Amino acid sequence: MTILKNRLFWPAAILVALLIVNAFTSNQFVTVRDGHLFGSLIDILRGSAPLVLVALGMTLVIATGGIDLSVGSVMAISGAVACLLISDLGNQNSVGSVLLIIVIAIAVSLLAGLWNGALVALVGIQPIIATLILMVAGRGIAQLITDGQIINVQSGPYATIATGFFLALPVAFLIAVAAVVLITLLTRRTALGLLLESVGGSPTASRLAGIRSRRITTMVYVVSGGFAGLAGLIYSANIKSADSISAGNLIELDAILAVVIGGTALIGGRFSIAGTVLGAVLIQALGVTVVAVGVPPEATLLFKAVVVVALCLSQSAAFREKVFGRFTSTRTEAIA
Amino acid sequence: MTTIDATPDTGNKKDSPANPRRRVYRPNAKYIPILSTLALLVIMYSGAVANFENFGQPSVVVNLFRDNAVLLVVAVGMTFVIITGGIDLSVGAVISLTTTLTATLLQGGWPPLVVLVLVLLLGSLIGAGQGAVIHYFKVEPFIATLAGLFLARGLALFINQQSIPIRDETWKAISEYRIPLAEGVVTKPIAIVALAAVLIAAAVLAWTRFGRNVYAIGGSADSALLMGLPVARTRIAVYTLSGFCAALGGVLFSINSTSGWALQGNGLELDAIAACVIGGVLLTGGSGYVFGALLGVLVTGLIQTIIIFQGDLNAAWTRIIVGVLLFAFIVLQRLVTRKVK
Q1: pLDDT tens for each residue of B230-269
Q2: Could you give the CA distance from residue B26 to residue B39 in angstroms, rounded to a whole number?
């Protein structure tokens, strides 16, 4: 009964159900080919890497009571910067140059995050509006970088971050795992997590208690920008091109959804990284499963809506009490 | 709130003739955000008039209402929701569902009046459903209406993924009808509908019991409940109203474009929220006016018009300029508000 009451029980149960459906419908769930793991499970893990990264940054932002709508645009910018620089390279397969370019692209993303953070923490603009500015303008900047074109690249090392394998596992998945482990250690093994929750609970009280609220708030937007940039690199490396229109389009809503499914309240003050990862993988698994079981494309969004509604209701304590509570009470009445 | 009111007969030392600040007109603090928006809007308009030929013509202002009729109607509904401390992300999707359904039904030969009533009812029903889920099941508004967004757009895509033309005579007649306002200045019926929606909503919010309940819930839902106010009814009503406004916006959209498309109104929810915030409606709830939302819509509309008058901007620069102007506007508004405080 205690397991049933855990907030993450139903999301986890739905994820397991989706994976089971996948295991039966797809011809390969997990297989070994050329020394790598393949199959729909690996596809889900690999495909969920960008969303996990974006949602991870979003979790920290939401923990402080903010929100970051600009992540999709930052993804587009970082992909555009990387692809533009790589396409200018003499030898696109030079590992050193590609690594340097990746660092540059992430630095640009961190700057974008710093802009958001400054608007929220220093100027004092409401987060939803502050990040809306970059959401609108950012995609324009990305289009400007690529000159309105889709830049194609033929770089082996760059493609590796999305489609490569290391120790039989997809590199994109490993990047996401590394990010999750890093953030978990930083927030749960140091005081940082406590400070984040404190700022989310009350910035003023935190400041009076000696916490540098503004610095913490700025930092979470910088981190969110960085992770969005990394996600943008994985996205663009996967399609080997920079598409400034569709890169990260609407990912902010999926990321926020992942965070909420994971049990982090939008009002801030507490957060769950494990929950966020679960939520992000669940959303990705849902998308893959819908295609795998052959739901027609025009109904995929409807299908997603139904699952999201069911999931949100299952997490609402009030809903469980009203619906399931009624059954138990009628039963007791019948006994009496 | 009223402490800043400079009433002449307070006898306070601060108000003695020696104090030069006494003569300065200082408005009620609660009107400062909306007044600063109005002032900045006037400055922006004057600047545009000075810079562009023909910008000063009355048709520019009149067309502002015509071109932003849909956003205006949606922002009105959004204002009520935001004042209660909520948010409604589903409005753009409800518009797409409304236009798609309207076009499909009209193509099927349904009578126009029946279609109109049906889609308005559907929009209200979606809103009411979201409101009920938010209130009774305590799901966060952001998430409940995000699910509503997926549901409405999913339904629209399920009905038809293509753009559907409307060939109904009534719809076409309304679409082509022009209302002469002055010599050489005409407007469309949709602008009048939008303006009427603003006036009615402003009256309801300012002068009815329902309007006061909306503010009370936004101030503190718990206190409102303890005061015996009908919190459940009011909260569901504001989401119903927002759904109705979105459906009405969808009808206006289908009249204006004489077509229906499932991808219509993408991202409109954020435009509406931005318009409300620019107009001084606080996202934390409890504060704001319908006229603020009107001013917010006019600001975003004016930005678009300026970009059209500029003429030589491509899509990328248009986005960047909109972002920059939005940024400049919000920062200026903050500075003005802070200084007067």
Answers
A1: 999 999 999 999 999 999 999 999 998 888 888 877 778 8
A2: 14
What's domain B29-340's architecture?
A: Orthogonal Bundle (1.10)
Chain A: closest CA distance from residue B151 (Å): 5
- What is the C-alpha end-to-end distance of chain B, expressed in Å? 11
Q: Give A205→chain B minimum CA distance, Å.
A: 18
Task: Enumerate the H helices of chain A as residue ranges.
Answer: 2-5, 9-25, 40-47, 49-63, 71-88, 95-117, 127-145, 156-163, 171-188, 192-201, 203-208, 213-239, 251-261, 273-292, 300-315, 317-335
Give the CA dihedral A270, A276, A282, A288, nearest 10 degrees. 140
Q: Which residues of A touch B161 (CB under 8 A)?
A: 298
Q: Domain spans of chain B? A: 29-340
Residue from A46, A115, A106, A49 nearest A79 by CA: A106
CATH class label, A6-294: mainly alpha
- Would you state the structure tokens that stand for residue B21, as one six-digit string? 């600040």
Residue A89 CA to chain centroid, in angstroms?
A: 30
pTM of the model: 0.83
Residue B27: CA count within 13 A, CB half-sphere: 10
Say what the ipTM of the complex is: 0.78
